[in-house]
Design goal:
It is a single chain. This protein has two domains: 1-73, no CATH class; 84-90 and 145-291, no CATH class. Helices cover 36% and strands 16% of the residues. The chain is built from ten helices and nine strands. Strand 1, helix 5 (100-106) and strand 2 (109-114) form a beta-alpha-beta unit. Helix 2 crosses helix 4 (68-79).
């Protein structure tokens, strides 16, 4: 499959007059190469004998912290988009986050939220001065998001009821915030989970609107917990990035043949997650976890 991706990349170069599109097959930073990949993935999905690549083969980083940019491009190439609207909770400065690449290179409409005023101001300045977004930058709001206010802040920002993507990374009460969301239904959710917890344990931190983790690894929820919540809300787990903790969920009935459901046990066998459980779980296993 890696050879297939390599050949697709060379076809993209040929399309653009033989110019090199990037210096590495591990990263596709240009808008041109991303658009070509997007349409080539769509073409692959329509073939009767399709052999689609795995998440491990499509990931790359432009603005995401890890390889989420490539995985999200791949997912939406396969399932398509509706209104190209994305929401990110705890977006930081909005420059390194899961939605920035879609906003900057693919014409998405963004609603970004973060609790740090300085970071919000940095993001507003960045998008206001970007040639891609200066005419209509994403809405970037300072907000400390809780289970009690998440629906209200979506409404006040003008987030539509149906969106294509929600990115959730609170490093805290992520489970409880997602559980509380009922005004917005994303087709895809990407969220951070706690891979220090084993794949068979559905655990989350207890809810508190001003949660602060007393220990580094006492945060968030396990992949099993988030998968259980996703199932309750009508979503399926389709995979994680290579480090196992950033997980991708898709609405049931959307692209099931192209992106089938996987189990948490299928996603946490990478060396990083395995070592994290072996070396760090003992330090927090007796904390006040909530089983869900």
């Amino acid at each position: 499959m890696k050879k297939t991706i390599h050949n697709l990349y060379r076809k993209a170069e040929a399309f653009w007059g033989g110019r090199r599109l990037s210096n590495s097959l591990d990263r596709f930073p240009s808008q041109q190469s991303q658009l070509l990949l997007y349409h080539m993935y769509r073409e692959m999905a329509q073939r009767p004998d399709r052999q689609l690549p795995s998440f491990a083969e499509v990931g790359f980083r432009c603005h995401s912290q890890f390889e989420e940019d490539g995985i999200l491009l791949y997912i939406f190439a396969l399932i398509g988009t509706t209104n190209k609207t994305c929401v990110e909770i705890c977006a930081g400065n909005g420059i390194e986050c899961n939605t920035a690449n879609l906003i900057l290179h693919h014409g998405w409409w963004g609603h970004l939220f973060d609790g740090d005023q300085r970071k919000v101001e940095q993001g507003l300045e960045f998008y206001t001065n970007s040639k891609q977004t200066f005419l209509y930058p994403p809405r970037f709001n300072r907000a400390w998001v809780t289970a009690e206010n998440v629906n209200d802040i979506f409404t006040s920002s003008g987030v539509p009821a149906e969106i294509d993507l929600l990115s959730l990374d609170l490093d805290g009460v992520d489970y409880w915030v997602w559980k509380a969301i009922d005004k917005v239904r994303p087709r895809v959710v990407v969220c951070e989970t706690n891979n220090v917890i084993g794949p068979d344990q559905a655990l989350t931190v207890p809810y508190h609107p001003a949660f602060e983790r007393p220990k580094q690894d006492f945060a968030g929820a396990s992949l099993a917990a988030m998968t259980s919540l996703a199932n309750e809300k009508g979503y399926r787990l389709v995979g994680t990035h290579r480090y196992g903790f950033n997980a991708f969920f898709i609405l049931r009935g959307v692209g099931e043949q192209l992106l089938p459901e996987v189990r948490p046990q299928d996603c946490l066998g990478d060396p990083y997650s395995t070592e994290a459980r072996a070396t760090r779980w003992a330090e927090v296993k007796d904390m006040n976890w909530v089983r869900v």
